[in-house]
Structures are given as C-alpha cells and as structure tokens.
Amino acid sequence: MASAEHETGGATGYIVHHLTDLKIGEGFWTFNLDTLFFAGLLGFIFVLVFKKAAESATSGVPGPLQNFVEMIVEFVDTQVKDSFHGRSALIAPLALTIFCWVFLMNAMDLLPVDLLPGIASLFGIKYLRVVPSTDLNETFAMSISVFGLIIFYSIKVKGPIGFAKEMLLTPFGPWMIPFNLLLKLVEELAKPISLGLRLFGNMYAGELIFILIALLPWWVQPALSFPWAVFHILIITLQAFIFMVLTVVYLSLAHEDH
Asked: Which sequence ranges are marked TM in the entry (predicted)?
C-alpha cells in the first residue's frame, strides 16, 4: 500500500492519507469514527480481560493471567499510595483504568502502518487511523474528564466557600483578588492542557516516524522499524504512566483541605 500511495500522491499524499481520520458530520459536530471505534474496542478488551481474571482468581497457585493482572494492580496501587494522600475509593480504580486504557491505545502504534488501513480499504473505507491517542480530540476528552473530577473534588472537600477562597485569596491575599484569580485560572487550566498535549504530541510524533519509515525502500524498513518499535515500547508505557501519575497527583491536590 505504501508504494501505491507513493505513486499516486507522492510522499506527502501518503503521509496526509495516514494522518486523516474517518469522519462524519461537519464543524463542531464532526465525529472521528475511527477514534471512537478503536478507543471503545480497546476499553472493552481491557474490561473483558480484567473481568475474566477476577472471575477465575484463586487463592491457590495463580495462572498466567491472574499473575499478570495482579502485577499491574499492585504496580498501580503502589503509585497511588505514594502520590495520593486523601481518602477516596475512586482513585485507585481510576488510575488502573487510565494506565491500562492509555497503554492499549498507544500500543496500536506498534502495528504495521498499512495493515489495518489496507484491510479497511478492501471494504471501501478510504481513511482509517488506528491509534486513538494520536487524535487530539481523544487526549483532550480524557484530560477534560480528569479536570472535571479535579473541580468536583476541590468543591466537595473544601466546600464552595473554601474553594472560592482558594481561587480568590491565594497566593497574595484579599488585596490582589483579580491577580490571584488570574493566576489560579492559568494554573488550573494548564493541567488539562498539559495532560492532553503531552500524550498527543509524543504519540503523534511516534506515528509520524513509523509512516516515514514505511516510505523507505522495503529492504531498509526492517533495519529501522524494529529498533524504533523496541524504543517506542518504552515511550507508550511511559506516556501511560505519566498520564496516570499526573492524574493522581492533581486529584491528591484537590483533596487537600488547607
């Protein structure tokens, strides 16, 4: 497929083709169907695997699936205990969901660039992006959801009056309320923006490198794609970890009642 795209649209056409989403609708109501499909599918796979592990869990000798799931759960639980200093039954399951779901979405980048789009083209689907975390809409949707939880717990723990005081009176006291509010708004809005952009930027760059490698002659591709894929495993894991840890840290700050 790479050669065919290269012949018809050149290298630029091939890159643009692979970076174009399968869309429906117009303007604000545009939906990226490929992002929604793969994100939903991977979320379903995550729930299915962990549900099966929970149902088959035994106090005796655990199987490979139970060992694998317990290792992930213990790893996430350790991170939550180290970073979160409040009390909430939601934080650990949320952190586990974020880590596993983001990792699975990132891991789609390890599939051959033309594999799933080539299969989709057989069914008349022209565009297909298979890595949901390379879609800015997906990463911002997740970060905005986290931001909503931050605001919710800030008001719940501190109370409406305490939250208003924190927004208006810190750090410089009642004589600089407008400046305090401006600083707090920038501080709070930076959280979802940095979360969404960090994940998007790293995964988009990784996807673009795989696309550029696919444009090279076939006899050069293995020498570059395999080392980059091995290195990219570190990136996709690290990005999932960072997203999870920052979410826990932000929610921990929201639970602090001064």
From this structure: 28-50, 88-104, 140-156, 199-220, 226-253
Which entry of 106, 133, 202, 225 is annotated as an active-site residue?
Answer: 202
Mind listing the pLDDT tens digit for each residue in 76-94?
Answer: 999 999 988 877 788 999 9
pTM: 0.92
Q: What is the pLDDT of residue 2?
A: 52
How far apart CA 8 and CA 230 sit, in angstroms, is 31
For tokens 């008001």, what's the residue?
155
198 is catalytic: yes
Task: Please indicate whether residue 194 is annotated as part of the active site.
Answer: yes
Catalytic residue among 121, 137, 145, 198: 198
What digits encode the pLDDT tens for the residues 176-234? Answer: 889 999 999 999 999 999 999 999 999 999 999 999 999 998 888 889 999 999 999 99
Residues 6+ apart with CB under 8 A from 65: 49, 52, 53, 56
- Identify the active-site residue in 143, 194, 225, 252: 194
